[in-house]
Amino acid sequence: MSEIVSHIKPLGFQWEALDPFLFCVHHEDFFPKGNANLGPDKKELAGRNIGQDFHVKDGWRMYHGQTVPGFPPHPHRGFETVTVVRKGWVDHSDSMGAAGRYGNGDVQWMTAGKGLQHSEMFPLVNQDTDNPMELFQIWLNLPRTSKMVEPHYKMFWNENIPRYETTDAQNRKTKIELIAGQIDTLAAPVPPPDSWAAKDENEVAIWVIHMEPNAAFELPAASPGVNRRLYFYKGDQLQLNDTNLPAYHSADLQADQQINMMAGEEACSALILQGRPMREPVVQYGPFVMNSKQEIDEAFSEYRQTQFGGWPWPQDEVTHGADAKRFAIYSDGTKEER
Q1: In what order do the strands lie in the sheet with 89-94?
Q2: Number of H helices and number of E strands within the chain?
Q3: Strands in 265-332 per DSSP E
Q4: pTM for this structure?
Q5: What is the C-alpha separation between 141 and 56, in angstroms, rounded?
Q6: Going from the N-terminus, what domains does the chain have, and what CATH number goes with each?
Q7: Which residues are involved in binding Fe cation (predicted)?
């Protein structure tokens, strides 16, 4: 192992990340057919620890959901979530009255800022076939100066996410989805204004790389001092310079060095998280990420008093109906439909 490629580790459910990122969770569930309530049939729930179902059984989990898989209302403060949905659907609702359904390549970028509640449910919209789900949820820290900004979210719809494509000498393709950052002259959508990613000098990149079998690609260099970690989540083997990265492993890459990537006998997919570190104290307790324990205590105290605006929806496990298409309603009432 070289200094350019280092710290190779196996991946679990929650992936460790480098500053300015906090971590990434990889959800992959092979949900069964849905019922009229967009959840699995009751017989499918037998033997599960409903409300705390994080153990894979029959290929899927209910998480904190009682009748629909997912995460009913919970608070956040002090960071951002970037939810990259590869397959399946997410129904969003929050304490600011915003809502949406997105999936199958869409990305939601939410700035929690000074605090909000939101729910993320995984509706099983198909009643005649299975409902596979795969997503990444990436937690990106907010700098001290932006911890208490107003919360909001942006949608990066699948059809609007730039895709960089190149071929090697044997005409094998590599495609890269740019959720943040830039390759050559191709740039990702503009991130939320208070994000660490909003300043070009921070060189934040979120790239999803897909390589055909045996494809070769030269990963371009970034600036010295930038952190870069690669998560190899699909495929049999990925070569990084002279280092072989096993399946479902991560590796730290020296960002100011070009990396020669080569896929194995199977098609490969990898996630790259890159950015200039904030180098600030990080104190995390559950859903809050601040710079000191006192600020964490203040967050819990305020949440107990205000519920960050309360929950304006008639139920906790909010879903948007079997026939809903992709849409977003923002806190100012603006609505997008796809």
Answers
A1: 70-76, 116-121, 89-94, 99-103, 327-329, 335-337
A2: 1, 27
A3: 268-275, 283-285, 288-290, 327-329
A4: 0.97
A5: 29
A6: 21-159+285-312 (2.60.120.10), 161-275 (2.60.120.10)
A7: 74, 76, 118, 120
Distance separating alpha carbons of residues 31 and 127, to the nearest angstrom: 11
Query: Residue 110: its pLDDT value, please?
Result: 98
Whole-number Å distance between alpha carbons of 271 and 232: 7
In the sheet that 216-219 helps form, which strands lie side by side, from edge to edge? 216-219, 259-263, 237-240, 243-246
Both tokens of residue 5?
């490629």
CA 250 – CA 227 distance, rounded (Å): 14
Neighbouring-strand partners of residue 85: 135
Structure tokens at 336: 């997008």
Report the alpha-carbon distance of residue 254 to residue 145 in Å, rounded. 28
The verdict on whether residue 92 carries a ligand-binding annotation is: no
74 is in an annotated binding site: yes
| Rg, C-alpha atoms of the chain | 20
- Is 249 within 8 Å of 8 (Cβ atoms)? yes
Q: Tell me the C-alpha distance between 96 and 85, whole Å.
A: 23
Q: Which residue do the tokens 């304006």 mark?
A: 312
Tokens (6 digits) for 288: 């809050």
pLDDT by residue for the chain (338 residues), tens only, comes to: 468 999 999 999 999 999 999 999 999 999 999 999 999 999 999 999 999 999 999 999 999 999 999 999 999 999 999 999 999 999 999 999 999 999 999 999 999 999 999 999 999 999 999 999 999 999 999 999 999 999 999 999 999 999 999 999 999 999 999 999 999 999 999 999 999 999 999 999 999 999 999 999 999 999 999 999 999 999 999 999 999 999 999 999 999 999 999 999 999 999 999 999 999 999 999 999 999 999 999 999 999 999 999 999 999 999 999 999 999 999 999 999 99
CA distance 111 to 91: 17
Check the annotation: does 120 bind a ligand.
Answer: yes
How far does CA 263 lie from the centroid of its chain? 24
- 152 labelled binding-site residue: no
Nearest C-alpha neighbor of 318 from the set 90, 155, 138 = 90
